[in-house]
Design brief:
Blueprint: E1 19-24, E2 36-45, E3 51-54, H1 55-58, E4 62-65, H2 71-76, E5 85-90, E6 109-118
Antiparallel strand pairs: 1-5, 2-3, 2-4, 2-6, 5-6
């Protein structure tokens, strides 16, 4: 199992567009827009640096179809290869919306994602 990443806190103004940064380039199969992916991930709030979710804390990776995820993941994971680690900085419009019922609505989110498998 890969180690839980530490997220470097970027500071400054949150971006208004999705920011994709490859930390480690994978060498396995490439994720495509319609794929199901198995990932480990950590998510933190851009402004506070508070971790709000991490599959690592539960001790197991999760598998799901990309089209069921927030837009930032649907746009940010394709092109990634198995074995890779990628950071996504996701503005509210591509996450949980700018306002509304979700506790993360209106927040810019940072995810570090380890891609373990693609189907």
């Amino acid at each position: 199992m890969t180690e839980k990443p530490e997220i470097e806190f970027p500071g400054g103004e949150p971006p208004t567009e999705l920011v994709i940064t490859d930390i480690t380039e994978g060498t396995g199969p490439e994720a495509t827009p319609g794929a199901s992916v198995t990932v480990h991930y950590v998510g933190v709030d851009f402004e506070t640096g508070d971790e709000f979710d991490a599959s690592y804390n539960r001790g197991e990776a999760i598998t799901f179809p990309l089209r069921g995820l927030i837009q930032g993941w649907q746009d940010g994971i394709p092109g990634m290869k198995v074995g890779g680690r990628r950071q996504l900085v996701v503005p509210p419009a591509l996450a949980y919306g700018t306002a509304g019922g979700h506790r993360l609505a209106g927040r810019t989110l940072i995810f570090v994602i380890d891609l373990l498998d693609v189907r």
